[in-house]
Structure formats: structure tokens, C-alpha cells
């Protein structure tokens, strides 16, 4: 057995990638699936689509690699996090659609709990903020709104899982109901210091503990995929939420190292070592990975809209046909115009956490056209990153020096212009690695290392290789003025003055 199969179940598509023992990618397959928006601020996926696209891409990737299932030593799973699936333990049927991480339908419940003073306890235990982003209030919503669900859950008949658990359940034919510590740390029900589900939080969010999966390490035994699915029984040996898997894939194993992934949204994680660091700047404290029962923690900044702003230029405004066209447009934009786009389409994430505000554009003149809008869209990604990396540096400065280099990955890092602007805003180098599929790479390494096929952490870190380093080059005065303009635009966008 020579290869590893990584499943990357993301928000808009499912990818399966076969890696060799290096681990380096050998062959891949990808499928998009339907997004459901039944009401304003609601986002749902059909769990059957998540599973069907996983099974289909796994088969196709193995075939494309010219391999048989018997050649695959292990499966690694990485997934969109927080997204909530509830299913019947007996039939394996979901009770309804999955509620996606972006969904804001539980904003009122979160506000009420905050008004009741619940947030400090939630943050102290979970490292998270009382926000609809996380799974707990999504589970409660399903139990309260699907007929009969609460009674069935209380009778022990229903199971909850983030997407990793749902896939493990289906891969093992209902034999294993488990998750890993990184995914558990995003539910708002898991005490990240105690390393256990918290009974008090389950009571607060009205989630029966019998629904919860067993929590294992990120490299662990998660059972075996049924032989009839892929052609041979394959052990599942690695599981991590996608942003944590990217942290592993970027080999950010030392405290102080930071990675930032630019896909639909942007998620930056700073490795803080074996102690959780509480944020004074509204960042999240989370588990980066857990090996041999030992958690390594991270500070996380989450931006909801990064590459999605480019999709909006394409699908909403229709001013580009494909994402790559933003670069020539940005280059052609009038340098004298100061147009700012605050892409608060679903509110603002870290460090603002304002779920009520909505997007805004400032500085429009008669001369503003597609070029200035495209530049403002790309720049918004750099500005938002600066806001959260600055917050991270403040939180971490008491503990140690944060790495001054940022490792980036994700689809949007294809944009050289955006990466240069990012380096200029951070006033620090930005490193783009050769392998941009770092999420799948992280999952593959976790599984391959557990299978004894891949090198240890040190060997894996040594194999990380640079594609290009972006070095800051903007005039300091111009940088200061641009940042001041952005901060003013954000201040005018927020729903409450700060
Ligand atoms: N050349 C480019 N310039 C700017 N944005 C890009 C470019 N290529 C891809 N993107 C953006 O990157 C995102 C896709 O990245 P990906 O990592 O596949 O996202 P996800 O995993 O969240 O689906 C899209 O939102 C797209 O708009
Ligand atoms: O599927 P992605 O890559 O957009 O990632 C989603 C995150 O895990 C949400 O927390």
C-alpha cells in the first residue's frame, strides 16, 4: 500500500486527492453541489449531496491515479467546519438539510443568550464567541423546528455531527460516530482545556449529550471504509477541520507560526503551542491539532468574505467573467481614486463580529468604473487581513514573538496582485508555497503519518517548499493613508458606533 486518499469536503465543492508517501498530490477529482438559500441569511446543504459527492470523487480520484483501492493505505478527512447535520441512528437518514456555518438564522437566540450574560462562560470554556457561526445553536434550531426531533433526540435516537462525523458514519456503514478535537472545538459545546463535551453548555444550548460523537485525536483510528464503497476496506486515520488541516499542511508546527487561507472566506491561524491563549481582541481560541492525546492550540481570525467578493464582481455585478480578470483591472485602476469596499455581505467577522451590518462602498465619483471596484474588492482582502493579523500580534506579543512571515494558501492566492497588496498592508513578507492544496495535504499527512507511510512532523516540515515570497514595497506614507481610509470606511459600516 503506497498511497493516501484525502477527502476535502468544502463549502462549495468536494475534492478527493490521492497523495503519494511524500506526501505529494498525484490525482484529484472535484464536484460542486447545490447551495440552498431558503430565506435571507440562511444557507443549507443537502447531507445526501455531501456524501454522494464524497463517494463519487473518491472513486474518480483513485481511478485517475491509475490505482486500485487496495493501494490506498489510509483515508484522511478534512471538512468545512461548524456545519451541522442531525440524523437518525437507526436509518442513517438526516432529519433535514445541514445548516451551514455561514447561516445566521440563530442570531436572535445568540443575542438573547448574550443579554442573559452567557458569553463569558461560553468563551472561557470553548474559546469561541456567542455567534450563530458555531454548531450549538444550529443543533438547537433543528431540534426545535423539525417535527418530533427534540423528543427523538432526548430518547437517544438522533445523532449530531459536523461534516467529518457525517462522512465517517457513511464511510463505515454506521459503525463509527466520532469526530476529532479540532472539529469538536468548533461546536461551542466542547471544553477545549478539559478536552471533553461540557454538560453545562449542553444544558444551556439544550442539546442532549447522547447526540454527540466520540472525540478522538486528529491522527487516530476512525474505523474502516466499507469494502463495497471503494473496492477494499480502507482505514480512516486522519481527521481535521479544514482550517486546522491547512495549518498542518503549511507545517505551522512551531508556536508563533501563522497561516492564512484565502478561499470563499479567509481564516488565519497562529500556533500558540500547548497552552490556549485567551484573546483580548475578539479572536477565537481553538485547537490547531491533537496528536497522542495532546492538543496544540491556535488563535484564529475568521473573515467571512474573501474570494467571495470576487465571485460577487462576477455573479452579482457582472463586471468580470472570471476571477483572474480582477488583476488587470486592479492594475489599470486610477491611483488617484480612493474607493473602499467593505464586503460585509453577511456582517463582519473578526475582530469586529458585527452580524447586523451589511456591505458598503465609499468614495464613488463619476469617474469610478469596473477597474476601481475590482481594485477595491481585492484590497478589501488585504485590509481585513491586516485587521486580524494586528489583533493576533497584540494578543500574542505578551507570550512570544509572532512569526513575521505569513504562509498563505487557497484559491485566491493565485492573484499575485492581491498577495503583493497583502504584504504591503501587513508590512511583512507573504510566502506562497508550491503546493496550494494545503488543506488536503494536511489531512493526507495526518492519515499517512498514522499509517506509518509518511515522514514525521520534522521530516514533513522540511519538505515544505516556497513558490514565491512577496516583499512589502509600498511607500509608508501611502500605506498609512490607505489604512486610515479603510478604518474610516469600516467605522461608517458598523451597525453600532465603536
Ligand atoms: N486569480 C484569482 N484572483 C482573485 N480571486 C481568485 C482567483 N482565483 C480564484 N479566486 C477566488 O478564490 C476562491 C476559490 O478558492 P478555493 O480555495 O477553491 O475556495 P473554497 O475552498 O472556499 O471553495 C473563489 O472565491 C475565487 O473568487
Ligand atoms: O469550506 P471553506 O474552505 O470555505 O472553509 C469553511 C470553514 O471551515 C468555516 O469555518
TrEMBL record:
<keyword id="KW-0808">Transferase</keyword>
<dbReference type="InterPro" id="IPR018485">
    <property type="entry name" value="FGGY_C"/>
</dbReference>
<feature type="binding site">
    <location>
        <position position="81"/>
    </location>
    <ligand>
        <name>glycerol</name>
    </ligand>
</feature>
<feature type="binding site">
    <location>
        <position position="264"/>
    </location>
    <ligand>
        <name>ATP</name>
    </ligand>
</feature>
<dbReference type="GO" id="GO:0019563">
    <property type="term" value="P:glycerol catabolic process"/>
</dbReference>
<feature type="binding site">
    <location>
        <position position="81"/>
    </location>
    <ligand>
        <name>sn-glycerol 3-phosphate</name>
    </ligand>
</feature>
<dbReference type="InterPro" id="IPR043129">
    <property type="entry name" value="ATPase_NBD"/>
</dbReference>
<feature type="binding site">
    <location>
        <position position="82"/>
    </location>
    <ligand>
        <name>sn-glycerol 3-phosphate</name>
    </ligand>
</feature>
<feature type="binding site">
    <location>
        <position position="12"/>
    </location>
    <ligand>
        <name>ATP</name>
    </ligand>
</feature>
<keyword id="KW-0067">ATP-binding</keyword>
<keyword id="KW-0547">Nucleotide-binding</keyword>
<feature type="binding site">
    <location>
        <position position="264"/>
    </location>
    <ligand>
        <name>ADP</name>
    </ligand>
</feature>
<dbReference type="InterPro" id="IPR000577">
    <property type="entry name" value="Carb_kinase_FGGY"/>
</dbReference>
<comment type="pathway">
    <text>Polyol metabolism; glycerol degradation via glycerol kinase pathway; sn-glycerol 3-phosphate from glycerol: step 1/1.</text>
</comment>
<feature type="binding site">
    <location>
        <position position="133"/>
    </location>
    <ligand>
        <name>glycerol</name>
    </ligand>
</feature>
<feature type="binding site">
    <location>
        <position position="133"/>
    </location>
    <ligand>
        <name>sn-glycerol 3-phosphate</name>
    </ligand>
</feature>
<feature type="binding site">
    <location>
        <position position="411"/>
    </location>
    <ligand>
        <name>ADP</name>
    </ligand>
</feature>
<dbReference type="GO" id="GO:0004370">
    <property type="term" value="F:glycerol kinase activity"/>
</dbReference>
<feature type="binding site">
    <location>
        <position position="242"/>
    </location>
    <ligand>
        <name>sn-glycerol 3-phosphate</name>
    </ligand>
</feature>
<feature type="domain" description="Carbohydrate kinase FGGY C-terminal">
    <location>
        <begin position="260"/>
        <end position="450"/>
    </location>
</feature>
<feature type="binding site">
    <location>
        <position position="82"/>
    </location>
    <ligand>
        <name>glycerol</name>
    </ligand>
</feature>
<comment type="similarity">
    <text>Belongs to the FGGY kinase family.</text>
</comment>
<feature type="binding site">
    <location>
        <position position="13"/>
    </location>
    <ligand>
        <name>ATP</name>
    </ligand>
</feature>
<feature type="domain" description="Carbohydrate kinase FGGY N-terminal">
    <location>
        <begin position="4"/>
        <end position="249"/>
    </location>
</feature>
<dbReference type="InterPro" id="IPR005999">
    <property type="entry name" value="Glycerol_kin"/>
</dbReference>
<feature type="binding site">
    <location>
        <position position="307"/>
    </location>
    <ligand>
        <name>ADP</name>
    </ligand>
</feature>
<comment type="function">
    <text>Key enzyme in the regulation of glycerol uptake and metabolism. Catalyzes the phosphorylation of glycerol to yield sn-glycerol 3-phosphate.</text>
</comment>
<dbReference type="Pfam" id="PF00370">
    <property type="entry name" value="FGGY_N"/>
</dbReference>
<feature type="binding site">
    <location>
        <position position="15"/>
    </location>
    <ligand>
        <name>ADP</name>
    </ligand>
</feature>
<dbReference type="GO" id="GO:0005829">
    <property type="term" value="C:cytosol"/>
</dbReference>
<dbReference type="InterPro" id="IPR018484">
    <property type="entry name" value="FGGY_N"/>
</dbReference>
<dbReference type="GO" id="GO:0006072">
    <property type="term" value="P:glycerol-3-phosphate metabolic process"/>
</dbReference>
<keyword id="KW-0319">Glycerol metabolism</keyword>
<dbReference type="GO" id="GO:0005524">
    <property type="term" value="F:ATP binding"/>
</dbReference>
<keyword id="KW-0418">Kinase</keyword>
<dbReference type="Pfam" id="PF02782">
    <property type="entry name" value="FGGY_C"/>
</dbReference>
<feature type="binding site">
    <location>
        <position position="243"/>
    </location>
    <ligand>
        <name>glycerol</name>
    </ligand>
</feature>
<feature type="binding site">
    <location>
        <position position="11"/>
    </location>
    <ligand>
        <name>ADP</name>
    </ligand>
</feature>
<feature type="binding site">
    <location>
        <position position="311"/>
    </location>
    <ligand>
        <name>ATP</name>
    </ligand>
</feature>
<feature type="binding site">
    <location>
        <position position="307"/>
    </location>
    <ligand>
        <name>ATP</name>
    </ligand>
</feature>
<feature type="binding site">
    <location>
        <position position="242"/>
    </location>
    <ligand>
        <name>glycerol</name>
    </ligand>
</feature>
<feature type="binding site">
    <location>
        <position position="11"/>
    </location>
    <ligand>
        <name>ATP</name>
    </ligand>
</feature>
